[in-house]
Fold each of these.
Amino acid sequence: MKPLIGVSSCLLGNLVRYDGRLKLEPRLKEIFGENVEWLPICPEVELGLSTPREKIILLYDVEAPSLQTLETQQDLTQQMQNWIDAKILYLQKEPLKGFIFKSKSPSCGIQNVEFFSSRDAAPQRIGTGLFAKAFLTAFPHLPYLQECDLDDPELVKSFIDRVLHS
Ligand code: SF4
């Protein structure tokens, strides 16, 4: 049986991004070929948001951020938290071996995610996306990569080794 790897859905070329544009990550195919089974997840679309959609942002504070739509200022924090809670419960029942996250996203980004003190202020790249943060807390020992890590052969090799031997 192929190892099951969760992945931010847009990296597989699914048209789920807020701007409706393709964000296929070709290195996934180059590195993993047909040797894994992908479990694509898009927190924002699974939340019920449309594609394309208004951009969403994270507002301070970093430890308890507020997730809001940029223009219409709709607060999605609780809605997203409810979805995350249910999704983590679902994932805990799956034979998941690892996860590959889209970088910089307010939902999927592991690090350097933009945080805003206000809509008018320049963002600071200091945070973690809401789904990514909850995932790392729920699965502290599961190997993961960020999209930007796919350039690093050592990180990729370590990820594959851990996926195959967990
Ligand atoms: S980064 Fe995450 S939330 Fe954004 S489009 Fe990709 S899968 Fe969806």
Amino acid sequence: MSGEDFNIQVSFRHQIRFTRGAFRADNALVSELLETRGRSKVLVFIEEGLRDFFPKLEGEIQDYFSDLSGLRLTAVEWLAGGEEAKRDDRVYHAAMGAIERYHIDRHSYVFVIGGGAFLDVIGFAAATGHRGVRLVRFPTTTLSQDDSGVGVKNGINAFGKKNFIGAFAVPYAVVNDFRFLHTQPEDTRRAGLIEAVKVALVRDGEFFNWMEANVLKLRALDEATLEEAVERSALHHARHIAEGGDPFEVGSSRPLDYGHWAAHKLEQLTDFKLSHGEAVSVGVALDTLYAAKVGLLEASEGERVLQVIENLELPVWHEALELRDAEGRRRVFNGLEEFREHLGGELTVLLLKETGVGVDVHEIDERVWEACAEELKERALSTV
Ligand SMILES: NC(=O)c1ccc[n+]([C@@H]2O[C@H](COP(=O)([O-])OP(=O)(O)OC[C@H]3O[C@@H](n4cnc5c(N)ncnc54)[C@H](O)[C@@H]3O)[C@@H](O)[C@H]2O)c1
Ligand SMILES: [Zn+2]
């Protein structure tokens, strides 16, 4: 027998920026971020749903590039977004077709402008075309700016499972342009804040205190407060990815997926009628109450979390939690098995021991968890 081990180290730069009006003539952010040697090509994908809100966007982008000598805009492609775009591989193939048609190579750039679902599917095309071309993300929803846009995951759903097909890839840059935040429906804008609550709960108790103190301003979608929450949350997510020691999730612990095992299952059980933000809200409420019930978290701390969620007008319960299989087991519990399988290894669910401090556990007592679901059902129905 013979052989040798080699260590392969690859280092990525994760560039996160915040701005307003990235394609305004006087905004140099984008041109300064990109390498402009040799007139690199830029292919822009915009989510179709943004057309009505930003009818001048394509023209602005064209004008922006016409003034730049080092970059060449090849095309602006409008494609369908939202969760529908992740359901099958049609949008993925449409994007891949454009990457091929416009001869986008590894020194060219793909820009993607849209919500989290659109970023996931176009990001997957960019991660796999030529085995990876440079991707610049412009997230346009609260959720995609405060969380998914800075993530390193791309993908689409398959076999009825969220994100079953995908690739890890660090984007070339992420430009959070606050101009996009203010056209979303109010409930969607608010729902995206759950990822900020989540990251505060698992990483930074002080940030949670700040959200709690500012919850009424956040509920009212006060511009400056919303933008501060988005920025702090995005940087926390990025810092966790860069410094948490497991950017590509080789281990079994996934703190940024707090509350997500139930959330992903609820999205699937509702045929994605429940949005990711709302589903995460229910998942976070349940896992938080559960931690209090099993004695990991002070009951009063759990109550603070539930109140922040409710004050943001987000759900703590959903009727899909009631769905049962032929044996009478709640179908949401299949989410635990799917969560484990997605990662491999031992089941690892993060729970809270304080606001801002998580702890990994390896089993969930279904009876206790069910009692939490019942309690939150009563709470939800009593406030209707
Ligand atoms: N890759 C990751 O790390 C990661 C992390 C968290 C979530 N996600 C994924 O992100 C997706 C959810 O993202 P989302 O919450 O942004 O929802 P979304 O992308 O489904 O967008 C929701 C709706 O908002 C519309 N929209 C987008 N921007 C708008 C704007 N500026 N004004 C008005 N309408 C706008 C879209 O057309 C869509 O109809 C899920 O698929 C989730 O799994 C991925
Ligand atoms: Zn999420």
